[in-house]
């Protein structure tokens, strides 16, 4: 439990209310993997607007669950926001996508979802 994500800040936010913590975990599973796929597609298509939008939407949840890739996500977000056509953010994107996949699998298992 909590190898690829951390619940410290989630528990603090939820005041240790396990029903609320589970609801936040469910929200993570509903939104973050979908946003990650949107982000992956946007970067592949050099769609700066959607890259920025998807990364920006993911930031609070990635931060709350402490996936450890917030700085990488910000690099990808800034690539989209600033339309950095000459730069490559694929390494950071892969780190984010891997972290999301690992956390998703672990949260599903930990919360029996």
Helices and strands in order, then pairings?
Elements: H1 8-14, H2 18-44, H3 48-64, H4 70-81, H5 90-110
Helix pairs in contact: 2-3, 2-5, 3-4, 4-5
Brief descriptors of the model:
0% strand, 113 residues, 5 helices, mainly alpha
Describe this structure in words.
The protein has 113 residues and is mainly alpha-helical. Helices cover 74% and strands 0% of the residues. It has 5 helices and no strands. Helix 3 (48-64) packs antiparallel against helix 4. The longest helix is centred in the N-terminal third of the chain and has 27 residues, at 18-44. The radius of gyration is 14 Å and the shape is elongated. The mean pLDDT is 97.
Short description:
The chain is mainly α and 113 residues long. The chain is built from five helices and no strands.
């Amino acid at each position: 439990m909590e190898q690829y994500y951390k619940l410290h800040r989630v528990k603090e936010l939820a005041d240790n209310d396990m029903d609320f913590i589970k609801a936040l975990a469910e929200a993570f599973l509903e939104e973050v993997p979908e946003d990650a796929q949107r982000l992956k597609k946007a970067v592949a298509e050099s769609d700066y607007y959607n890259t920025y939008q998807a990364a920006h939407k993911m930031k609070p949840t990635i931060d709350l669950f402490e996936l450890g890739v917030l700085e990488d996500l910000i690099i990808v977000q800034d690539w989209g926001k600033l339309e950095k056509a000459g730069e490559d953010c694929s390494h950071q994107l892969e780190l984010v996508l891997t972290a999301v996949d690992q956390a998703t699998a672990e949260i599903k298992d930990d919360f029996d979802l």
